[in-house]
Amino acid sequence: MIKLHEKLFPCPTSAAMELIGGKWKSIILMHLVDGKKRYNELRKELPTITERTLSLQLKQLEKDDLIARKVYTKRPPLKVEYSLTNFSRTLLPVLEAISNWGIYTAEQKGEFIFENKDK
What we know:
49% helix, Arc Repressor Mutant, subunit A
């Protein structure tokens, strides 16, 4: 048994999924791979996520030490940036493998649909 967040998990996979499971956490992490992003940048890159869900997921990822939140208050307007932590960087090979498998799955079982963003 593994104890994490005051919960018991029967195996390492279930403990890992406690941190990165759900629809949005791994997607948010993948959008931070290339560097720091502000809330609005993430919001634009994830148009189907609600503001409330993004906010809640960012708070949970920060609590779990998967992202760092830095607030700049020296001059208005307030600026907040999110970035990966060293801990979350250990997850990158797994996230990249999942992404590659997603591409493979789309090629084998689905299709790619590219939306025209000029509309």
